[in-house]
From TrEMBL:
This is L-rhamnose 1-dehydrogenase (NAD(P)(+)). Its EC number is 1.1.1.378. The keyword Oxidoreductase applies. Pathway: Carbohydrate degradation; L-rhamnose degradation. Pfam families: adh_short_C2 (PF13561). Residues 7-194 form the Ketoreductase domain. The keyword NADP applies. It is an enzyme of class 1 (oxidoreductase). Belongs to the short-chain dehydrogenases/reductases (SDR) family. One of its GO terms (biological process) is fatty acid biosynthetic process. It comes from Sandarakinorhabdus fusca. InterPro entries: KR_dom, NAD(P)-bd_dom_sf, SDR_fam. Keywords: NADP, Oxidoreductase, Rhamnose metabolism.
Length: 254
């Protein structure tokens, strides 16, 4: 059963990690997929190759989500290629781990601009296109368990993920009258490029695994099912919701 048959899905940060898994997963469910990516042309092209190998159309658009014009450009190019936008997966994010007391201003600013401002601009641009074309749509934002808990070396990151979660709640209210559903997923510790250096420490990785009731850390593919569900008509009456995808870590943080 292909849950996204005939839909066009846009994914930010789509060349690696959760974004890449979501893009390929959407194609597996029958969607044409446009990905935004920041830097790696080779990884973006290989993602598109996987999408096309599944019999779907793919498009890669390079751009920095921290810039408002990137969102307008991404949506416009997706519409030019596919004719419409049905789903946005707002996923692009960074987490440069750093201590709080000497956190560089530029690190704080960049993290907020990519993670929160970038999500805002992308959601707004996609929503405007959905309103113009009619017929509703779905927006899924990748927040984090960090929206709900703190992190000593993530004082700049956790507020942005709380903001993304809050953005989906408010956007759900603002866009409901247009038939646009807005939800977030809150991943736990997922093995991606963001945390590969942090989790290279075997002792820390084992500690994180022990804190997870399911006994393992997450993989990007673990997010595909939840994202596809929220993007699909199976979630037709779900909006303003937040879905933890963390192997049970949050309920075990005591």
């Amino acid at each position: 059963m292909k849950l996204l048959q005939g839909k066009t899905v846009l994914v930010t940060g789509g060349s690696t990690g959760i974004g890449r898994a979501a893009a390929i997963g959407a194609a597996r469910h029958g969607a044409d997929v446009a990905i935004n990516y920041a830097s790696s042309d080779d990884k973006a092209l290989s993602c598109i190759a996987e999408i096309e190998a599944l019999g779907q159309r793919g498009l890669a658009v390079k751009g920095d989500v921290a810039l408002p014009e990137t969102a307008a450009d991404f949506v416009a190019k997706a519409v030019d290629a596919f004719g419409h936008v049905d789903v946005l997966v707002s996923n692009a994010g960074i987490c440069p781990f750093h201590a709080f007391l000497d956190m560089p201003v530029e690190t704080v600013d960049r993290t907020f601009r990519v993670n929160l401002h970038g999500a805002y601009y992308m959601v707004q641009a996609a929503a405007n296109q959905m309103v113009r074309q009619g017929g509703g749509g779905a927006i899924v934002a990748v927040s984090s368990i960090s929206a709900l808990v703190g992190g000593e070396f993530q004082t700049h990151y956790t507020p942005t993920k709380a903001g993304v979660h809050s953005l989906m709640q408010s956007a759900a209210i603002a866009l409901g009258k247009h038939g646009i559903r807005c939800n977030s997923v809150l991943p736990g510790t997922i093995l991606t490029e963001i945390n590969k250096d942090d989790l290279a420490d075997d002792a820390k990785r084992h500690y994180m695994e022990e804190r997870t009731p399911l006994g393992r850390l997450g993989m990007p593919d673990d997010l595909v099912g939840p994202i596809v569900f929220l993007a699909s008509d199976m979630a037709a009456y779900v909006t303003g919701a937040a879905l933890l995808v963390d192997g049970g870590m949050f309920v075990n943080l005591q």
